[in-house]
Amino acid sequence: MSLSARSYRLLLGWCALCALALGLSLRAEADGGYQHVVREGETLASIAERYYGDPRRENILVAENGLTAQGGSPIVVGLRLQIPYVQYHRVQPGETWAELSTRFYGDPRRAFVLMDANQGSSSEQPAEGAELLVPYPLRHVAAQGENVPRIAKAYFGRGAEHSRRLRRFNALRMNRLTRGQIVLIPLSDLVLSDEGREIIREATGQAPEEGQMRVRQAEIDEQLPTLQELVRTGRFAEAIALGNRLLGTGVLTGSQEVTIQRELGTSFVALGQQELAVSAFRGALARQPHLELDSARTSPRVMRAFHDAQRAQESATEDAPEEAEAQDRPASESDTSDAAQ
């Protein structure tokens, strides 16, 4: 049986909707988001209010779920809506901006978004142990007549810099878009409200991360100049107390730990605690093996303790493979006979 032109177009439209739904489902699984089931009386604005604390963020729900409804339009009871939000990632040893960008966005050239969101720089890789905010890549399908500046204004407000950012993230040469063209919107402020986080916790048994470690690491960054000033002005006992308190937080980045251990080493030397100084410097070297102190600005006593730490660290590194090899080596006949006796 042949299909009329109108029926054929309807069939194609239905297939496109199915493909979009499948794509959204796969994205939801990959992003680890949360699905909200629409209840009687709810609107996109009221749902946005609950999860984001702002009813105007209904445009996020429209874009994320491929809806064509405009603000305040009724939605069907029982509809499952994907609720997107930013993620947090703790940097593992050796990870780079480019590698993380490829993992989260599929392209190393998009690393600038991660750097901007975390006050990073292309001249320095993310610090090991740092908790990074990962902006959410919202997918916006361009409507008839939409262009990059119009979309940028809808999500970020006015400003030519927002348009440039979107073009760069999407590798676009110009502002003009075609209907149906997909534009990814990296959103750094798509944070759940307290109510939204509680809803998800009650439904899943686990609350989404809220970036508390990132906040704590930022607070520690603000205290490091105080630690350095205490050492510079000779208030070594206070420096040791502050340094040990910061070490005890358990949320330090690698670079923060290096800074703290280095200041502790200097303070211990000044107070005549040579062994503790060497131990502190070894802690810094464990995090940054190629660490060097400026001999022109560092006292000879501190340099001696630092060199002792270097030698101890090198010796421990050399001994480690031998110990591992000894543990893996099969027992000799004499060892076996001794064991038998």
Structural notes for this entry:
- By secondary structure, this protein is mainly alpha-helical.
- The chain has helices at 5-31, 44-52, 58-64, 97-105, 111-117, 148-156, 160-169, 194-204, 212-232, 236-247, 254-270, 274-287, 300-328, 333-340, and strands at residues 34-37, 80-83, 87-90, 131-134, 136-141, 182-187.
- The protein has a two-stranded antiparallel sheet.
- It starts with a helix and ends with a helix.
- The model is unreliable at 5-30 and 332-341 (pLDDT under 50).
Order of helices and strands: HEHHEEHHEEHHEHHHHHHH
The low-confidence parts are 5-30, 332-341
Q: Name the CATH class of one domain.
A: Mainly Alpha
The biggest sheet amounts to:
2 strands, antiparallel
Helix content: 55-70%
Count every helix, treating DSSP H or I runs of 4 or more residues as helices. 14
**Strand order, largest beta sheet:** 1-2
Write the layout of secondary structure elements.
Blueprint: H1 5-31, E1 34-37, H2 44-52, H3 58-64, E2 80-83, E3 87-90, H4 97-105, H5 111-117, E4 131-134, E5 136-141, H6 148-156, H7 160-169, E6 182-187, H8 194-204, H9 212-232, H10 236-247, H11 254-270, H12 274-287, H13 300-328, H14 333-340
Antiparallel strand pairs: 1-2, 3-4, 5-6
Helix pairs in contact: 2-3, 4-5, 6-7, 9-10, 9-11, 10-11, 11-12, 11-13, 12-13
